Amino acid sequence: xxEIHKSKLFSAIQPxxxxxxxxxxxxxxxWVRLQDEYECFFAAxxxxxxxxxxxxxxxxxxxxxxxxxxxxxxxxxxKCVLFVQSHVSAHCELTWVLNTITYPGELSRMTxxxxxxxxxxxxxxxxxxxxxxxxxxxxxxxxxxxxxxxxDQKQHLELSxxxxxRFNNRYGExxxxxxxxxxxDSGARIMxxxxxxxxxxxxxxxPNGFITMSDDRDTILRKFKRAVTDSDSQVRYAPExxxxxxxxxxxxxxxxxxSIADCEKDFAGKGYGDFKLAVGETVADxxxxxxxxxxxxxxxxxxxNDILKQGAENAFRTARRTLSKVYRxxxxxxxx
Length: 336
Ligand code: TYM
What we know:
mainly alpha, 13 helices, globular, binds ligand 1
């Protein structure tokens, strides 16, 4: 039988707290869409998570929770490699090598590093600065051609591409240069419900700004009811002029699968109250089966642990091939 070689795809999420519908729309939903076309590797990025302070027991719980969520959202463990980043030591090993071709200036000017340094001024550590190099190692280890992420990761993806090309130029063809997969107009950047000029983020101090994947129906309806709109009354997509309403329309569009134009039509002549209620109900209806399935999987500990064990073994096999190649190219003695 002819073997079909699919291109590889890598993406990850940090198990650093509640997962928001921003993470779902910008990342997980697209993973599910792409999993038949690509050979996929998906990880819980726990090595990344410890660049800000984590409580150990909570990090362990969040990691298991996140993997159950991936599966509950439709990421199929029969088709994809699902694993915990720290289970595959090659991620740290390749990071070290890539560090030797990365310049401090490239890392200190990263927007996310600057933001996080400001937010965690008491804990500006080397890991926080080196975060994008670890991310490049994640991607390059699997020779990923495609990396589905939200728009906030674009700058990090550019560094991954630069490092792949720099290494290839210096040592000869080794890495696939990855392409980001970022939704074009809507969905790549879901905004805070409380302040639509800011990205929806799990680290927002105001819990009304984000909807988590485990929020219950009442919470979801309440948060949407409070969502900031504008003093106009027209449900129209105009991100510059009407950022709050446009963000809600985007969310409604993603969860209903209707075009933005059809979404606008649904609310022609209706007020913001009806609109916000409909968006809330749509999101609550879409999340309910995911929440149920996740609750079921959390109880299937052996099943989940098997997936993660298999995943780490499969990931290790692919990662090891790349790492061996890298070690050979840079001149590490192998004893042969
Ligand atoms: P993280 O955990 O911050 O976010 C996970 C994914 O969710 C996307 N995202 C959003 N998309 C749309 N709207 C939003 N408001 C929103 N907020 C977050 C992020 O872009 C991301 O795709 N560094 C990564 C994790 C990572 C990774 C990797 C990603 C580690 N190694 C290698 C890709 C490839 C991160 O912190 O994601």
